[in-house]
Amino acid sequence: MLRRLSIWVVLAASLTTLAGCGNTAGSRALTGGAIGAGGGAIIGGATGLGAGTGALIGAGAGALTGAATTHH
After folding, report:
1. CA-CA 20 to 30 A from 29: which of 5, 15, 63, 64?
2. Which residues lie closer than 8 Å to 58 by C-beta, 6 or more apart?
3. Which is more confident, 20 or 44?
4. How far apart are CA 10 and CA 15, in angstroms?
5. Radius of gyration of the chain (CA)
């Protein structure tokens, strides 16, 4: 259980950090979604949720995080 929680915390921290790298909200949402999809697929496959489901959840979370952050 602790391992699963630590994976999600690391993923959330990476998404927040990397999603703020673009200059526009659209580019941050796009990169955040791509990063989230990759991370979600890995975590979904490892936890038994399924890689496709994990990718969808991760892409949505990454895109929302990227759009909500600023480039500063």
Report:
1. 5
2. 11, 36, 37, 38, 39, 40, 41, 43, 44
3. 44
4. 9
5. 12
pTM for this prediction: 0.66
Crossing angle for the helix pair 51-68 and 25-47, nearest 10 degrees?
150
Token pair for 35: 């990063």
Q: What is the 3-state secondary structure (H, E, C) of 27-68?
A: HHHHHHHHHHHHHHHHHHHHHCCCHHHHHHHHHHHHHHHHHH
Structure-block tokens of residue 34: 């791509």
Residue 7 has pLDDT above 70, yes or no: yes
Q: Which two tokens stand for residue 9?
A: 């915390």
